[in-house]
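Ex. 9. Protein: Heptaprenylglyceryl phosphate synthase.
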Amino acid sequence: MNINEWKHMFKLDPAKEISDEDLDKVCESGTDAIIVGGTDDVTLDGVLDLLSRIRRAHMVPVVLEISNEEALTPGFDYYFVPLVLNSKEKKYVMDIQQKAIKEYIDMMEYSEVYFEGYCILNPEAKAFQHTNCELPETDDVKAYAYMAEHVFHLPIFYVEYSGIYGDTEVVREVKAELDKTKLFYGGGIETPEQAKEMKEHADAIIVGNSIYTNLKQALKTVDAVKRE
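Predicted structure tokens for Heptaprenylglyceryl phosphate synthase:
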């Protein structure tokens, strides 16, 4: 399946524990892809361990979201490189990414690398604080989305509420700014109803935390989105 057709992804944090049984359920859920990524304590060993466990018996596409260049490794189907557009520091928009590409360009075939414009909208989130973000108004987020498509020509714009369920009206207005750039939504999706609601506006949703808090409900989000 082409990445542009993805509707649902699970995000697994290599710093969090998940049993083999639960990991099998996630991989066999029918999700379009598994994203491996996190903010704290992401190590090469943790990434490699999770990748090998996923690969052991599953064919689901696996993505490494590059938040830490030391944890970059070959073996993934895709690589997502976040550009945190509402960060107050240029290094999180461009410098870290340039350094990683310079160091590892031979490892990653360009066709497998997707740059994503990130906008983090939860000031309590570790990712928001780690990347020194500024909380934007809705018009600011729409302007970032416009820049993602028309200035940077990015394939993905990622609205990230990271741990809380976001504002559907914001997501709807942001989607209206985009044509070719795909809108990904992540944050606080815990139920099939929430998954379906956000998918009405976003091209694809990402479910993360609820894997570790209520796996049964998290697994139901796949059908809720793909039954459309």
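Check your answer against this statement. The chain is about 35% helix and 20% strand.
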